[in-house]
Amino acid sequence: MSRINTVTNQTATTEQAALFNAIQQQIGMVPNFLRVFANSPAALRAFLGLYGIANEGSLSAQTRERIALALAQQNACEYCLSAHTAIGKSTGLNGAEIEANRNGTSQDAKASVAVKLARSLVEHNGDITTADIIEARNAGYSDADIVEIITHVGMNLLTNILGKASRVEIDFPNISLAQ
């Protein structure tokens, strides 16, 4: 059971209900972590805004999910690991790739560098080396791409922290952190 209220359709204010309707129309469901975010409609709007804008960037949906999977595992967020396993599969990631991502790498050489950079950003609280940046550039990532990787790291840290702090009920097929 969640330690922070999970706003339901029945308990939602008019503003929360409007946000839920928009989410439902866009993705077909309202995940529980967004129902926790909805305790503060301002926080939910901020997250949805950043999420929407960040997904307009140059990183592929698969690379975004690879990063999310790597960080969910690294940060021990079972909710996020479960959610991003389902989402990753919907983008075309297979089981072997998802396992690689959870282990901090990828079967795709370029994506492997993005996953490695993302994990390094978390491990070192952003204080990465110049070699990390050069490796990303050598793999074909532009400075814009690198900034997008950093943005996705920030978003995933936010959701990992929310998932763990709230102990939100997993509403995706449950994936254990143990490998």
> What is the CATH third-level topology name of the largest domain?
AhpD-like
CATH architecture descriptor of the largest domain? Up-down Bundle
CA-to-CA gap between the ends? 24 Å
**SS content category:** mainly alpha
* Radius of gyration from CA coordinates: 16 Å
Order of helices and strands: HHHHHHHHH
Fraction of residues in helices?
Answer: 55-70%
What does this structure look like?
- The protein has helices spanning 14-27, 32-37, 41-54, 61-74, 78-90, 95-102, 109-123, 130-138, 143-166.
- The chain has 179 residues and is mainly alpha-helical.
- The protein folds into 2 domains: 14-54, no CATH class; 61-166, AhpD-like, CATH 1.20.1290.
- Helix 4 packs antiparallel against helix 5 (78-90), helix 4 packs across helix 9 and helix 7 (109-123) runs antiparallel to helix 8 (130-138).
- The longest helix has 24 residues, at 143-166.
- The radius of gyration is 16 Å and the shape is globular.
- The mean pLDDT is 97.
